Amino acid sequence: MSQSKKFAILRIAFGLIWAVDAYFKWQPAFFANFVSYLTGNLDGQSEIVKQWIGIWVHLVGVNPGFFALVVALGETAIAIGLIFGLFTRIALWGGIAMSIVIWATAEGFGGPYMSGSTDIGAAIIYALLCVALLIGRSWEELSVDNLLSKKS
Fold first, then answer.
1. Cα–Cα distance list, 117 to 110, 111, 131 (Å)
2. Alpha carbon 40 to chain centroid distance?
3. Which of 21, 64, 79, 85 is 20 to 30 A from 27 (CA-CA)?
4. ∠ at Cα 98 (95, 57), nearest 5°?
5. Number of other CB atoms surrounding residue 43 within 10 Å
6. What is the full per-residue pLDDT of the chain (152 aa) written as tens digits?
């Protein structure tokens, strides 16, 4: 199996993971509790992280439903892009951006970092996998992008 096909299969599998994430974002509980996802990691954080998350809570608090919808739509678009290889590079850059924002807000940069901490958060790993799929040119096989480029 070629290297590009392996990256394509990884892209599709990762897209399915994004699809599961997106499914959960479309649930009423996500919309109803959106702000609490941002404030849930404040305990034990450093003061600067608390202030950073506070800025986001203030921003999102203006219209939480709108921001929850943006997250749900974004994750859905990323999932579709990765599964079908449609606008793959845009989906991957969007995945990097969304993952970093989630990591830096809802996951509190993976903190708090203190004795007993065992995890840096999943979102940063999502961002790194998106970078790997960009480097591996995962759109070159098993993708709508590849089909469209051959027709040009």
1. 9, 8, 26
2. 18
3. 85
4. 170
5. 9
6. 999 999 999 999 999 999 999 999 999 999 999 999 888 878 788 899 899 999 999 999 999 999 999 999 999 999 999 999 999 999 999 999 999 999 999 888 887 666 666 678 899 999 999 999 999 999 999 999 999 888 76
Burial of 42 (0-12, 13-18, 19+ CB in 10 A): middle
Q: Would you say 6 and 137 are in contact if contact means Cβ atoms under 8 Å apart?
A: no
- Which is nearest to 79 in space by CA: 91, 96, 89, 67? 91
Q: Cα-Cα-Cα-Cα dihedral of 75, 79, 82, 87, to 10°? A: -60
Q: How many residues does the chain have?
A: 152
In the structure encoding, which two tokens stand for residue 36, read together?
């609490």
Q: Which residue has the tokens 């790194």?
A: 128
